[in-house]
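Dear colleagues,

As part of the handover before I leave the project, I'm documenting each prediction I ran so the next person doesn't have to rerun anything. This entry is a single chain, and its sequence is reproduced below.
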Amino acid sequence: MNRHSLQTFVSICMLCLLPGVALQAQQTARKSAPARSLAQLQQEFVDLRFGMFIHYNIPTYMDQDWADPDASPALFNPSKLNCDSWAKAAKSANMTYGCLTTKHHSGFAIWNTKTTSYNVMNSPLKRDVVKEYADAFRANGLKVMLYYSILDTHHKLRPGHITKTHIEMVKAQLTELLTNYGDITALIIDGWDAPWSRISYDDIPFEEIYTLIKTLQPNCLVMDLNAAKYPAEALYYTDIKSYEQGAGQHISKEANKLPALSCLPLQASWFWKSRFPTEAIKDVNVLVKDNLVPFNQAHCNFILNVAPNRDGLIDDNALAGLKEIGKLWKYEGPLSPLPPNDAPIISSNIAKGQPGNASWSNDMWIMDFANDDDFSTGWTSNSTVKTPWYEVVLDKDRPFNMVVIAENQPNIRQYKLEYELNGVWRTIFAGENASKIKIHRFDRVWGGKVRISVDRFSNAPVIMEFGVYDERR
């Protein structure tokens, strides 16, 4: 099937699936276990401590981490696929769960999907790998998590090409994954808001997808694998803060207070390479003593990637390494209770890119740096200003029910937060808040401007991002 035919096929499938997506979600939610609080789910997640990431998809057959988006499904041809052996390998390391790459960035789906012909059922294998994985891990007493890539180069779900059909494809695929494979403990989503994917939370609307997932499975945690770009003190667009060590993302073992995940491959890269059987794996002593143990002490779950080979099996050297880990580390039950934290920020920031005004700034760090969707830049008050203020001017009167002020350091101590409607300023908050990330949720109001007036501060305020949101409740 050529690219044009494939896109037409996807569009037709989406039109067929869409009317039933909402109903299917409601029916599935009714069948699910009673919903637990997010705080409980986060605690249960960190209590799992240690799991197996399984990068297995069409890149396995290309000696690449990113596959050719036009690679033929005929490449996907494991002769000895055995997901039970994966689960037993995980148990040998005393892991408690697995997470499988259902679809990576090139768009090949390894489950029996109705949304595209670019899937495992049109490969020589013709077996639903997600089902076999989920059944095997549950049979071995392990929790089941799934990985899903938003970026999909085969279906042209990439910057500059995203359409409504793409959004509906994502919804339909997630509906399948969260309907047909039992309870999913967490869904790890990749390729969203990453510098290499450049797909924003507006291009593929995060809040819509998040709400769909929670409707389908209320107890499924939503994890954005790129969440580390945001401040470590708040959950932006994720239920769990994730850190990919290979991308330079490292949790603070001393200061972290959020439920977290840190990931690392056992070998040199995520997907299997032809050199792996004879190449040394990472030092298991380092993995345990410098990663697993201290991460657990910092409210952080550690997920170690183990890549199956082209036969669908794990190489002997990796199996041996997992057994050594199992000798060095034992699961000792739940971790210490998580500190209380605010609910995740999941809505679009309606202040992003809007005009800003402020009191005298310091040098070049003027108003627009505080709402440019970049946490590495910020508006900086001139140190001589005694009562600094900053405001964002919305494009029109809009409804909103949350304001978040992110500082570079917690300098602002006492302040007033207001909004303007028809020339009248109304107070949202007045008082003290010494947090670095100041999250204010309130009943929905309408306004055309939002501002902060600072009454007391320890050093000249630096606002990295001033966010205004209208979140679903």
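Confidence is low (pLDDT under 50) at residues 1-30. The radius of gyration is 24 Å.

All the best with the project,
I.
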